[in-house]
Amino acid sequence: MGVELRGLTVRFGSTTALDAVDLTIPAGTVCGLLGRNGSGKTTMLSVLAAFRRPTAGAVLVDGEDPWENPRVLQDVCLVRESGDVLADLPMRENLAYVAGARPRFDADVAGALMDRFELDPAKRPDRLSRGQRSAFGVVVGLASRTALTLLDEVHLGMDAPSRYAFYDALLEEYVAHPRTIVLSSHLIDEVQRLLETVVILHRGGVLLTEDAETLRGRGVSVTGPAEAVEEFTAGHQVLSRQQLGRTVQAMIHGEVPPEAAARAVASGLELGPVDLQDLFVHLTAEGPR
Ligand SMILES: Nc1ncnc2c1ncn2[C@@H]1O[C@H](COP(=O)(O)OP(=O)(O)OP(=O)(O)O)[C@@H](O)[C@H]1O
């Protein structure tokens, strides 16, 4: 299921959370929805899942308005960090409920993920730790196998090993059963390897939408002896710089002509793609709202 937003506006009283947003998310992609606090990510995902009606504009999921649309909504799953499950029912019953609502739900996948995250199906979500509740949200989101899966900061409470298990599970599931997955996250360093397309929201608008490879091509990382790196980066906009002993790694914004890149490599410097997090900080840096 692809997504198309045309002039999407959502207001909360005097606050405009989304301001005339036009956006296309193609079907069958893992899309990273990035943005600073309050940029409108949760609002956008809530509208896509028909949890909320827009103030103005059009939302099309698989070509149709999702609002009160059973055909579309049975194949759309939004999981938020809060879990979106029945907190006072054992997880086993929660999964049975989800299975009844989601035609593509896969009980074997759910069972395997429950084991992977060491979740006891007899336990109720309101008796779990924060990270375990997040992990259960991941189980519901991935095992539902919906054509549009919206994961809103779902991994925020999970510890590092659980988050990496989540990333692996997401990729395995996506490869086995391609679908459209929109993942909102502040952990850009960690999730960047999963993303095929990136949407950056900023102050209620789309700052950019690009495929991840093109975005990484908007800058270069250069690593090597301090003096050589300083010489190479002179005249470029440096996004970040880290030094370990005499070795420096710097991220620069902008393209490097092929001849300059070849000279740098010949002189012993290592060039690579820019770090998405540094680029994000640079593109959205205007101070707090
Ligand atoms: N129910 C609400 N009532 C009033 N204002 C709201 C409501 N929900 C969101 N907002 C406002 O809308 C804007 C966008 O909020 P939203 O939750 O979509 O941002 P976000 O990008 O998900 O942020 P974060 O990264 O902090 O979770 C913010 O200014 C927020 O204060």
TrEMBL record:
Q: Which residues form the ABC transporter domain?
A: 3-228
Keyword Calcium on entry? no
The record's annotation in SMART domains points to: AAA
Which InterPro entries does the UniProt entry name for this protein? AAA+_ATPase, ABC_transporter-like_ATP-bd, P-loop_NTPase
Q: Tell me which Pfam families the record gives.
A: ABC_tran
Superkingdom of origin: Bacteria
Q: PANTHER family, alphabetically?
A: ABC TRANSPORTER, ATP-BINDING PROTEIN, SKFA PEPTIDE EXPORT ATP-BINDING PROTEIN SKFE
Q: What is this protein called?
A: ABC transporter
Source organism (scientific name): Cellulomonas bogoriensis 69B4 = DSM 16987
